[in-house]
Amino acid sequence: MRRIFLCSVIMTFCLATPAFSQFVVSDPALTQLSQITWAKELKQAYEQFKVLDNSRNILTESLDLYRKVSGLIQNSKMVLNVLKLQGEMLKISATECSRTDIYTQEGYNAYTKVLNDIMEESITSFDLLRTIISPDLKMTDGERLKIIIDLDAKLRAQQDKLLDERARFNTVNDAIKRIAALKSDKS
Known about the structure:
Layout: H1 2-16, H2 28-97, H3 105-132, H4 141-186
Helix pairs in contact: 2-3, 2-4, 3-4
Protein backbone atom coordinates (compact mmCIF):
# COMPACT_ATOMS: atom_id res chain seq x y z
CA MET A 1 0.00 0.00 0.00
CA ARG A 2 2.83 2.17 0.67
CA ARG A 3 4.11 1.62 -2.77
CA ILE A 4 0.81 2.50 -4.29
CA PHE A 5 0.53 5.58 -2.17
CA LEU A 6 4.04 6.66 -3.01
CA CYS A 7 3.45 6.02 -6.69
CA SER A 8 0.22 7.95 -6.66
CA VAL A 9 1.88 10.91 -4.93
CA ILE A 10 4.71 10.93 -7.44
CA MET A 11 2.24 10.68 -10.29
CA THR A 12 0.22 13.55 -8.86
CA PHE A 13 3.29 15.79 -8.74
CA CYS A 14 4.30 14.82 -12.24
CA LEU A 15 0.90 15.47 -13.67
CA ALA A 16 0.20 18.58 -11.58
CA THR A 17 3.37 20.49 -12.57
CA PRO A 18 3.16 22.40 -15.84
CA ALA A 19 5.21 21.23 -18.78
CA PHE A 20 7.78 23.77 -20.07
CA SER A 21 8.98 22.07 -23.17
CA GLN A 22 8.27 23.26 -26.71
CA PHE A 23 8.29 21.48 -29.96
CA VAL A 24 10.36 23.03 -32.79
CA VAL A 25 8.12 23.69 -35.73
CA SER A 26 9.94 24.23 -38.99
CA ASP A 27 8.16 25.46 -42.08
CA PRO A 28 10.65 25.49 -44.98
CA ALA A 29 8.35 27.46 -47.30
CA LEU A 30 7.81 30.25 -44.73
CA THR A 31 11.53 30.35 -43.91
CA GLN A 32 12.40 30.72 -47.61
CA LEU A 33 9.77 33.45 -48.03
CA SER A 34 11.16 35.33 -45.00
CA GLN A 35 14.70 35.17 -46.42
CA ILE A 36 13.54 36.48 -49.81
CA THR A 37 11.59 39.32 -48.15
CA TRP A 38 14.58 40.19 -45.97
CA ALA A 39 16.88 40.27 -49.02
CA LYS A 40 14.47 42.57 -50.89
CA GLU A 41 14.22 44.92 -47.89
CA LEU A 42 18.00 44.95 -47.55
CA LYS A 43 18.40 45.81 -51.25
CA GLN A 44 15.77 48.57 -50.94
CA ALA A 45 17.54 49.99 -47.85
CA TYR A 46 20.84 49.99 -49.79
CA GLU A 47 19.21 51.88 -52.67
CA GLN A 48 17.76 54.43 -50.24
CA PHE A 49 21.20 54.81 -48.65
CA LYS A 50 22.73 55.53 -52.09
CA VAL A 51 20.07 58.19 -52.76
CA LEU A 52 20.68 59.78 -49.35
CA ASP A 53 24.45 59.71 -49.94
CA ASN A 54 24.00 61.42 -53.31
CA SER A 55 21.75 64.03 -51.68
CA ARG A 56 24.37 64.62 -48.99
CA ASN A 57 27.06 65.10 -51.65
CA ILE A 58 24.88 67.57 -53.55
CA LEU A 59 24.13 69.50 -50.35
CA THR A 60 27.84 69.58 -49.46
CA GLU A 61 28.70 70.94 -52.90
CA SER A 62 25.92 73.53 -52.62
CA LEU A 63 27.18 74.59 -49.21
CA ASP A 64 30.74 74.93 -50.53
CA LEU A 65 29.47 77.01 -53.44
CA TYR A 66 27.46 79.19 -51.03
CA ARG A 67 30.58 79.72 -48.91
CA LYS A 68 32.57 80.75 -51.96
CA VAL A 69 29.86 83.11 -53.17
CA SER A 70 29.40 84.53 -49.67
CA GLY A 71 33.15 85.10 -49.37
CA LEU A 72 33.21 86.70 -52.81
CA ILE A 73 30.33 89.01 -51.88
CA GLN A 74 32.04 90.02 -48.63
CA ASN A 75 35.31 90.63 -50.46
CA SER A 76 33.49 92.62 -53.14
CA LYS A 77 31.75 94.82 -50.56
CA MET A 78 35.01 95.53 -48.79
CA VAL A 79 36.78 96.25 -52.09
CA LEU A 80 33.95 98.62 -53.00
CA ASN A 81 34.33 100.40 -49.66
CA VAL A 82 38.10 100.71 -50.15
CA LEU A 83 37.64 102.04 -53.69
CA LYS A 84 34.97 104.49 -52.54
CA LEU A 85 37.31 105.73 -49.81
CA GLN A 86 40.13 106.05 -52.34
CA GLY A 87 37.84 108.09 -54.60
CA GLU A 88 36.87 110.41 -51.75
CA MET A 89 40.53 110.96 -50.92
CA LEU A 90 41.36 111.72 -54.55
CA LYS A 91 38.49 114.19 -54.74
CA ILE A 92 39.64 116.00 -51.60
CA SER A 93 43.23 116.08 -52.84
CA ALA A 94 42.21 117.39 -56.25
CA THR A 95 40.12 120.13 -54.63
CA GLU A 96 42.90 121.07 -52.24
CA CYS A 97 45.60 121.10 -54.92
CA SER A 98 43.59 123.50 -57.07
CA ARG A 99 42.84 126.09 -54.35
CA THR A 100 43.20 129.74 -55.23
CA ASP A 101 42.60 131.25 -51.80
CA ILE A 102 46.19 130.90 -50.57
CA TYR A 103 48.23 133.68 -49.02
CA THR A 104 51.72 132.18 -48.78
CA GLN A 105 53.11 130.12 -51.61
CA GLU A 106 55.71 128.37 -49.41
CA GLY A 107 53.04 127.17 -46.95
CA TYR A 108 50.85 126.00 -49.80
CA ASN A 109 53.78 124.15 -51.43
CA ALA A 110 54.52 122.36 -48.13
CA TYR A 111 50.81 121.56 -47.79
CA THR A 112 50.54 120.09 -51.30
CA LYS A 113 53.73 118.06 -50.70
CA VAL A 114 52.13 116.50 -47.60
CA LEU A 115 48.96 115.79 -49.62
CA ASN A 116 51.02 114.16 -52.38
CA ASP A 117 52.83 111.98 -49.84
CA ILE A 118 49.53 110.84 -48.35
CA MET A 119 48.13 110.08 -51.80
CA GLU A 120 51.27 108.12 -52.78
CA GLU A 121 50.77 105.93 -49.71
CA SER A 122 47.15 105.50 -50.66
CA ILE A 123 48.08 104.52 -54.24
CA THR A 124 50.48 101.91 -52.83
CA SER A 125 47.53 100.50 -50.87
CA PHE A 126 45.46 100.54 -54.07
CA ASP A 127 48.17 98.57 -55.92
CA LEU A 128 48.24 96.04 -53.09
CA LEU A 129 44.45 95.76 -53.29
CA ARG A 130 44.64 95.12 -57.01
CA THR A 131 47.18 92.33 -56.38
CA ILE A 132 45.07 90.77 -53.64
CA ILE A 133 41.90 90.52 -55.71
CA SER A 134 43.79 88.96 -58.61
CA PRO A 135 42.56 85.39 -59.21
CA ASP A 136 46.16 84.31 -59.87
CA LEU A 137 47.04 84.84 -56.20
CA LYS A 138 46.43 81.66 -54.22
CA MET A 139 44.63 82.81 -51.04
CA THR A 140 41.54 81.79 -49.19
CA ASP A 141 38.63 84.22 -49.05
CA GLY A 142 39.25 84.69 -45.34
CA GLU A 143 42.88 85.70 -45.93
CA ARG A 144 41.84 88.11 -48.67
CA LEU A 145 39.13 89.62 -46.48
CA LYS A 146 41.56 90.11 -43.59
CA ILE A 147 44.04 91.95 -45.81
CA ILE A 148 41.27 94.05 -47.38
CA ILE A 149 39.99 95.00 -43.91
CA ASP A 150 43.52 95.99 -42.91
CA LEU A 151 43.81 98.08 -46.09
CA ASP A 152 40.47 99.71 -45.32
CA ALA A 153 41.68 100.65 -41.84
CA LYS A 154 44.95 101.99 -43.27
CA LEU A 155 43.12 104.07 -45.87
CA ARG A 156 40.77 105.45 -43.21
CA ALA A 157 43.80 106.51 -41.18
CA GLN A 158 45.27 108.16 -44.28
CA GLN A 159 41.98 109.93 -44.94
CA ASP A 160 41.92 111.18 -41.35
CA LYS A 161 45.48 112.42 -41.81
CA LEU A 162 44.45 114.16 -45.04
CA LEU A 163 41.49 115.84 -43.33
CA ASP A 164 43.67 116.87 -40.39
CA GLU A 165 46.21 118.44 -42.74
CA ARG A 166 43.41 120.28 -44.55
CA ALA A 167 42.05 121.60 -41.26
CA ARG A 168 45.54 122.66 -40.16
CA PHE A 169 46.21 124.42 -43.46
CA ASN A 170 42.80 126.13 -43.35
CA THR A 171 43.51 127.37 -39.82
CA VAL A 172 46.93 128.75 -40.80
CA ASN A 173 45.63 130.20 -44.06
CA ASP A 174 42.68 131.88 -42.30
CA ALA A 175 45.03 133.30 -39.66
CA ILE A 176 47.27 134.75 -42.37
CA LYS A 177 44.19 136.22 -44.10
CA ARG A 178 43.15 137.94 -40.85
CA ILE A 179 46.65 139.24 -40.23
CA ALA A 180 46.79 140.58 -43.79
CA ALA A 181 43.36 142.15 -43.34
CA LEU A 182 44.45 143.80 -40.08
CA LYS A 183 47.61 145.15 -41.71
CA SER A 184 45.62 146.58 -44.60
CA ASP A 185 43.14 148.23 -42.18
CA LYS A 186 45.98 149.98 -40.31
CA SER A 187 47.44 151.38 -43.51
